[in-house]
Amino acid sequence: MYRYFKAQTSFEKILVQKTALHTENTRVSKIKNGKNGKNARGVINGIAHFANIVRLLYNTPAILKNDETMAAMYDRELLRTLILEKSLKFGDFTLASGKKATYYLDCRQITLDSIGAKLIGEGILELLPPNSMPHAVGGMSIGADPITAAVITVAAYRNIPLKGFMVRKQSKGHGTNQFVEGPIASGDHVVIVEDVVTTGGSSLDAIEKVEALGVKVDGVIAIIDRLEGGKEMFEAKGYALHSLFTVRDFGIS
Question: Can you give the pTM of this predicted structure?
Fold first, then answer.
């Protein structure tokens, strides 16, 4: 019976052994008592169902930290392939900065894709310093919003406390009438996230609005750096820019 179970952890191995033993005892008991096989199969199916429930419980975030086999690895090459297939487009485009370009990186095709979001969250977490993790990540809406969601979700599954925030281009004009939304406060350290950096203007705007709250910006992380002056612009203002990729990773110079 227990050959149908795939035990991947020591916990599951113990569970499978106990399940198999209980199943065998039940089978023997049914034979001794003259019961038919139908009832025995019902018991076995019930035990198998219980084992599956335990596996689901075992895969919750509270347990992940205790099982190294559950640790996810960031697959940079897979993310690069997804960007090539879904995001990179060639033609005549006008960028948010006002610049003309012969190619465009539509990163929402990746940030709003389940696999892409997972990879982006994992990649950005790898760039955050583990010994000085910021209190929060966030950036200018709407491009940064799915990135923020991806990072804090992956962080939750790794039991890393991390908050998110959104920066509005314009205040909403009602309610609290604020530019920054999210659970951040004066004194917090944050990292700005961005999909594609060209000149850096969008993130610099986000930085200005966030710092007005008394928040300390530790740096900026982008999915892709177009290598068109953004990095130098950030450095001139005292901020470091890191990115998962540059356009050179996609054969563009």
Answer: 0.71
